[in-house]
Structure to design on (455 residues):
């Protein structure tokens, strides 16, 4: 198909990464076309990070009020779910209206094209009956969609994904969450705290299976304390819906689970076939678009965000977007470096992690020293009292004398992570970390104790 329109750069997908690339290049004076099939801003502000963290915040306030009330011997009143849902719709999703984000892009000089974009050859993007030739190139930033596991019967049921959970105006009486990763456990806790009877079904032998075993154990402990039933090593064999409720069979003669809602939170995947990556010589069956250190995926082609498979997080998408922008503008800058990739599971307590787990470090043949210190053993943990669950775990490359990974779980675990993130990223010698001053009484002072306990 011959191109009938021109641009300097065409950005396909305007989630956090794509919107940043398109807006920044337009501000720099390039003629940029941004193509978006749904809402400018992508998954994060409407159906993912932002509304889910508003839900978490509401659940945490409620739990904290419960802890205080319990100390005083008072009962705590659970507010109506509908009010939380309404606030999310009004303030976070703005009723799924992307005018603010769309206007922001246009104000920067970008051209917004509504529709589903598809590569139609090198430097070419087709949307409907229009095709653009991109003089400098194309940036792919189309993100991922929920992965629906091939459980017999599941496809025919009205299961929920994260989108339905964010849009729920009424709290279900009961819910099965299929998947015990970060998204599954975060949502399980929130719904349970508002009074929904939640069961989490995880096929691996622990929750948060990508993280340290201690993190998975903590997540299970706190979910159970919130009344969630946690089933690990449990594989869904059969799903059904009888018009009123879902059933989920787990095999082994066990009675099927029954719930009003079934939330599928079993990972996410990129649809490269629909994106036409074969027209530029990439494998449509691959799980991700491979990129080099400057986010190049080919001649005149860049990719950023979830689609690159380097960590499905908004901060990764934005980080990669900055690198791609520099490269497209011909500015020098360091290659993408994922050694200190941080991530936080926003449960209460938060479970932050950076770099390698102990297992990953050992698998790389490193001589590893580790330590695990409970937060409750610190002064701040003791002061905090109820809700002080958590720990610091450090993973040291003993030959280099630097931390290669760490987990900080606890109240504000995601914030405590920052110092550990710097230590892993900058390869600060453990000996230096041992001889600095840690504020008293803070949760992060547990890091000092954990450094002293490395064995
Ligand atoms: C429930 C939930 C909670 C999360 N919480 C967090 C969190 O707390 N912190 C965090 O860092 N991350 C979180 N994430 C992950 C985060 O949402 C993603 O990593 C992030 O949105 C990815 O950004 P992206 O730039 O890859 O694009 P996305 O946000 O995925 O957006 C891609 C955009 O491309 C558009 N698009 C797709 N195909 C086409 C096409 N062919 N043509 C045109 N447009 C197209 C889509 O409509 C979409 O708008 C969460 C995810 C979920 C599901």
């Amino acid at each position: 198909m011959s191109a009938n329109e021109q641009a300097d750069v065409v950005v396909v997908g305007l989630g956090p990464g794509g919107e940043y690339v398109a807006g920044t290049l337009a501000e720099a004076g390039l003629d940029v076309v941004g193509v978006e099939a749904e809402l400018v801003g992508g998954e994060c502000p409407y159906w993912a990070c932002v509304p889910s963290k508003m839900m978490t915040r509401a659940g945490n306030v409620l739990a904290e009020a419960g802890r205080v009330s319990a100390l005083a011997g008072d009962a705590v009143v659970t507010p109506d779910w509908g009010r939380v849902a309404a606030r999310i719709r009004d303030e976070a999703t703005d009723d799924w209206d992307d005018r603010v984000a769309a206007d922001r892009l246009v104000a920067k000089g970008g051209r917004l094209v509504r529709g589903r974009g598809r590569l139609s050859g090198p430097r070419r993007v087709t949307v409907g009956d229009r095709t653009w030739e991109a003089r400098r190139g194309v940036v792919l930033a189309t993100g991922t969609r929920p992965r629906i596991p091939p459980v017999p019967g599941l496809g025919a049921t009205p299961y929920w994904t994260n989108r339905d959970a964010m849009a729920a105006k009424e709290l279900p009486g009961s819910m099965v969450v299929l998947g015990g990763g970060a998204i599954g456990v975060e949502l399980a806790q929130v719904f349970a705290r508002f009074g929904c009877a939640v069961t989490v079904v995880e096929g691996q032998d622990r929750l948060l299976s990508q993280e340290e075993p201690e993190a998975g154990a903590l997540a299970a402990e706190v979910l159970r304390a919130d009344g969630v039933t946690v089933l690990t090593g449990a594989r869904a064999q059969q799903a059904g819906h009888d018009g009123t409720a879902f059933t989920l069979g787990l095999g082994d003669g066990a009675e099927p689970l029954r719930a009003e809602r079934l939330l599928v939170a079993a990972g996410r995947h990129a649809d490269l076939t629909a994106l036409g990556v074969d027209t530029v010589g990439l494998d449509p069956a691959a799980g991700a678009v491979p990129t080099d250190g400057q986010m190049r995926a080919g001649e005149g082609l860049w990719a950023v965000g979830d689609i690159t498979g380097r960590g499905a997080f908004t901060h990764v998408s934005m980080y990669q977007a900055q690198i791609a922008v520099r490269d497209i503008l011909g500015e020098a800058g360091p290659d993408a470096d994922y050694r200190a990739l941080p991530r936080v599971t926003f449960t209460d307590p938060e479970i932050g992690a950076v770099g390698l787990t102990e297992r990953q470090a050992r698998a790389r043949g490193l001589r590893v020293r580790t330590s695990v210190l409970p937060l409750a053993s610190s002064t701040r943990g003791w002061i905090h009292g109820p809700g002080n669950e958590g720990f610091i775990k450090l993973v040291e490359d003993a030959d280099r004398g630097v931390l290669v990974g760490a987990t900080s779980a606890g109240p504000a675990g995601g914030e405590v992570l920052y110092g550990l993130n710097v230590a892993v990223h900058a390869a600060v010698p453990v000996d230096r970390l041992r001889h600095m001053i840690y504020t008293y009484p803070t949760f992060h002072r547990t890091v000092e104790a954990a450094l002293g306990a490395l064995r």
Remarks:
- The longest strand covers residues 130-140.
- Residues 160 and 277 are 29 Å apart (CA to CA).
